[in-house]
Amino acid sequence: MARKTTKQRNEELAPDGKQLRHYGLKLRMEPNPIQEKQIHQTIGNARFTYNFYLSKKKEVYQLTGDTLTYGEFKKAFNRLKDHPYYSWLKASDKFALETAMEHVDDAFERFFSGQNKFPKFKRKHKSKQSYSTKETNGNIKLNIEKQTIQLPKLGEIKVRLSKNHRMMLKETGLKGAIKSATVTYHSSGQYDVSFKMEEVTHLKEPVDASKIPDESFIGLDLGLTHFYIDSNGKKVENPHYLKKSLHKLALLQRQLKNKSIGSHNYKKLQKKISKLHLHIANQRKDFLHIESRKVVDENQVIILEDLHVKGMIRNKKLARSIADAGWGLFKTFITYKASWANKTVVFVNRFFASSKLCNGCHTKNIMLSLSDREWICPSCGTKHDRDINASKNIKEEGMRILHSLPLSA
Ligand SMILES: [Zn+2]
């Protein structure tokens, strides 16, 4: 089965000056009890299909050295579904089962290209369980007015649209077409659906950096004292409600220690903690969406430090605050929002000494320590705010990089 890749389809669209754009839309679902049951059955059936195809592929390979193809397996699988013993497979969305098979093929492809380890079987007990299904002949729909979605075999399900979603959808409608949907159940009791959306857009015009005025460049220094500080001297704080939620989380975790493992109260508290984790993640995402939107709307070129977040998180003391600051996600949001708006993001190397360089005379102050929030340049006498100076340097370094590059799209 040959599915056209995005790259192939983009090559077909390019002569018309067009390209594909993908984005995700995630909504909270409120299924009724019958739908809940159906969702769990489909999750189970998709997992069964995945594991079954994987085990058959392994078996065929070990016995004959051949590859069991998707087409061959699907034929056999469909015959199996007709057998009374396996009739429960028919009760769930067939596209979900097909997608599970495709996921096995994808996992093997990634294995053979060296990206991943050998595919593993899916286990039942995980805090997050999901299945994916694909759009075929209008079987997946979103009704913004009614705040419902339609999914195969489930019918209409209530969804909760956030204020942001409602605003966006009212303004622009649903951009593009729904390609697939992933239904996720969290052990906290929450159901989500994520749509993969696809839109055909115009190819971007190449950016000529030399024509962009200096004031349209912005450098951001992501930090711990503030969420970020920009080269214009603007300081954005970490939100306080996030700190509050984290405090609450620490409290609950301490309470959990005093409960006997496996008891009713233990499980109840565990569920509460799981819920709070999700709440914090959502709070953080909302904050990052709003801040990244502002940065992208207000500037043409955004310059960021390519901080090695993963490496830094290993340092335990800083870990909490870094994880909470959500820098990695912030960069992802800025990058894709900029790409949609045909704006440019430049990353400067994390070993570039942004803090220690005087932005006035470009002398490196090797005596500067992490605790110096303000300092005076020993060479030229300029007084610096540590973070503002750093973000100015990041901006300059980004401009230097961009001006030395050929035109880029
Ligand atoms: Zn200086």
Q: Can you describe what's shown?
A:
The chain folds into 2 domains: 6-202, no CATH class; 209-403, no CATH class. 44% of the residues lie in helices and 20% in strands. It contains 11 helices and 14 strands. A 7-stranded antiparallel beta sheet has the order 2-6-7-1-5-4-3. The relative contact order is 0.10. The structure holds zinc ion. Residues 358, 360-361, 363, 377, 379-380, 382 line the site of zinc ion. Zinc ion is lined by residues 358, 360-361, 363, 377, 379-380, 382. Residues 207-315 form the Probable transposase IS891/IS1136/IS1341 domain. Residues 327-394 form the Cas12f1-like TNB domain. Keywords: DNA recombination, DNA-binding, Metal-binding, Transposition, Zinc.
Structural class: alpha+beta
Most strands sheet: 7 strands, antiparallel
- Name the bound molecules: zinc ion
The count of β-strands is: 14
Give the overall shape, derived from the CA principal axes: globular
Low-confidence stretches: none
**Average pLDDT for all residues:** 87
Distance between the termini: 33 Å
Keywords: DNA recombination, DNA-binding, Metal-binding, Transposition, Zinc
Domain Cas12f1-like TNB: 327-394
Family: In the C-terminal section; belongs to the transposase 35 family.
GO molecular function: DNA binding; metal ion binding
